[in-house]
Structures are given as structure tokens and as C-alpha cells.
């Protein structure tokens, strides 16, 4: 891979497709993987709490352990790296680490728009002080980690690589096999490498069909 390859961004978006067949001989080094994950982690997140952890599968043994967990999807082995994007169910625990340095640095907007650090931290704690049945933590983990996963796929494409996202895996088996602490939940697997077979052709709905201008009309419940 040449990290110098940087296509025009709109071309990157249009040319990214879900690749399922990767060249097993193609190697990506650790530094390149770090660069990809650094770009993935520049995604936005609620309160900038950065609700993601990346488990990078590069070693043959680990990839083979992942294979049955991923329902035998061969791309997890053949890809140069398969990244499991995990969501953080306790991202409130990141608040001090995220805001401490900004507050110490005396930045003008150190409290993310709040009047004081106490109000900021209280807001975050209040949001996370929900009982176990509340979907809030899970929703936050999934939506924020998904943004990082999308950036990962686009960064890969911009760097001349291909990718394939997967939810076709057993999250419980993943947690067990790779000793994932309860704080994190597996959200998505992303295989990254060099395609040896192009992605299946796909289409999208015409944009007109996906837009609702300024709210649905009354009575459109069955649309
Ligand atoms: C959340 C998510 C889960 C997916 N899971 C799988 C999967 O388990 N296996 C697979 O082969 N493709 C999977 N895909 C790829 C989709 O099938 C693919 O993105 C879709 O058909 C559109 O194709 P394109 O991305 O090539 O345009 C997944 C995509 C997303 C976004």
C-alpha cells in the first residue's frame, strides 16, 4: 500500500464497495494500520467521548480463530487486516481524559459549550446514569462506533485499499473468544486489503426517493 495515494474524496465515496475477496498475499504494515485507525478515530462522537476500540486482526492464528465467529466469511482471513470495531458502553469514563487537558490548557471553549467543567461532567454522567434496560448506552456505542467504521472504510479507499463491512458474526462468541471486557460491545467487522475480485455491483435508490423535505405529510404513516 502506498499511503501517498489520496484520491479525490467524492471519487473515494463513489468507488468504495463491499469487497469480499482479498489477496491473501498482500501485507499492510503496523504503521499503515495505525494510520488507518488514527483516521477512523478522527470521526465525530457525542461529547467527543470517542466510543470506539479497534481490535486489529493481523496474525494468521487470530484470523483463523475469528473465522468461525464470522460465520466462515473467508474475507476475515484473506484480508490484510480485519478490524473489529467495538462500541464503548461506558464512554462517560472517557470524559476526564478527553476534557482534562483542554481544561488545563485554558482553552476558551474548554467546556464544550457548557458554562463550567462541573456542568459538562454532570451532563455526561446524567446521560449515562440509566438503568441496564435503557437502550441509551447501546445506541450511543453503536452510532458513534459506526461513524468511526465508516471513516475507516473511506480512509482505506483513499489510501488505495479495499474494505468490506460485516455484521454477519456472532457477537457473543466474539466476546468470549477474544476476552472482550463488558464495557465494550462488538459493532462491526471491517476487512481491509487488496481486492482480487471486484465487489458485487450494487445500486442505490434514486435520491428523490430518499428525501423528505421538511417533514412527512400528515397521513403518510404507511409510506
Ligand atoms: C452494517 C453492515 C453489515 C454488513 N454485513 C455484511 C456481511 O456480514 N457480509 C457481507 O458479505 N457483506 C456485508 N455488508 C455489505 C453490504 O452487503 C453492502 O455494503 C451492500 O450490499 C451495498 O454494497 P456496496 O457497499 O458494495 O455498495 C454489510 C454492510 C453493512 C453496512
UniProtKB/TrEMBL annotation:
Superkingdom per UniProt: Bacteria
Keywords carried by this UniProt record: Oxidoreductase
Protein family (similarity comment): Belongs to the nitroreductase family.
One Pfam family hit: Nitroreductase
Organism field: Paenibacillus rhizosphaerae
Protein name as catalogued: Nitroreductase
Nitroreductase domain sequence ranges: 13-194
UniProt keyword Repressor present: no
CDD domains according to UniProt: MhqN-like
Keyword Kinase assigned: no
MF terms in GO: oxidoreductase activity
